[in-house]
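Q: Convert this sequence to structure tokens.
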Amino acid sequence: MHETIGISSPQPKLLQVIRDYYLLTKPRIIPLLLITTAASMWIASQGQVDPILLLVTLLGGTLAAASAQTLNCIYDLDIDYAMERTRKRPLPSGRVQPRNALIFAIVLAILSFTLLTVFANLLAALLALSGIAFYMVIYTHLLKRHSTQNIVIGGAAGAIPPLVGWAAVTGDLSWTPWLLFALIFLWTPPHFWALALMIRDDYAKVGVPMLPVVEGEEATTQQIWLYSLIVVPVSLILIYPLGSAGIVYGLIAVILGIFFLQKAWLLLQNPTDKQLAKSLFKYSILYLMLLCTGMVIDSLPMTHEVVSACSDRFGMIVSAIPNA
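A:
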């Protein structure tokens, strides 16, 4: 390496450092975690969530997720260096040292725990902390490099945010947040295996036993189809028997579910088609985001008023019809 001769502004270097630490957190993953947290909070508060509590909980969740992703980058440094796709990340490229990344991750975790404890409650803080621990110990350390079921069991880490959101509002956990946990847990395999089908060769190169690498594309698409068949009806349990959502969410969930099943079915018929895998992967993200948006809309008092008014009007029309 050689140094540039002359006086250089420290600002570009500072911006690069900030950008590198930002990239360590894998920021593209975090919004999906936050929208599940927000949806849970809206349902728990019956559509009247405290905006300050919402902001604090989402910030605490962001810090926890950022800590977990940074720790994951440190642990998977060897894999990231070996894969062409990830070699330019801050750690394998040498722009950030592992020790500094570790300090960064610890600070993020402490800030998350403190923020949630002070402004929400201890249960929410402990749940966020457990998400970091589960992601690192169970998924990254025990499963990722040793089992084809790595992302099935490891998916529990990504399903914890709704528990955090519900606990932040209510201070406890009921059947509804656990149903949201189960929904995201079951959604994760179709989502992640679709991605694994796209980058199967990368995983094979570094010896990570993702299902497409070990069992092949056909077995993987069969598993994706089976999980998809479970995800859609589970999403409707929120309506019955739990009664935590109504007809507006139900319509959204059914429409989204039909498209989800359609894409999973097409992939099942064409296991080696990476474009179909990519289509399912992208749609799975949209599916979860719109499903959570549907939960939020359905929980709003205004929505309840509109549905009630429409129901009353429909009842009046039916009652006015003369009996045959």
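The two ends are 91 Å apart (CA to CA).
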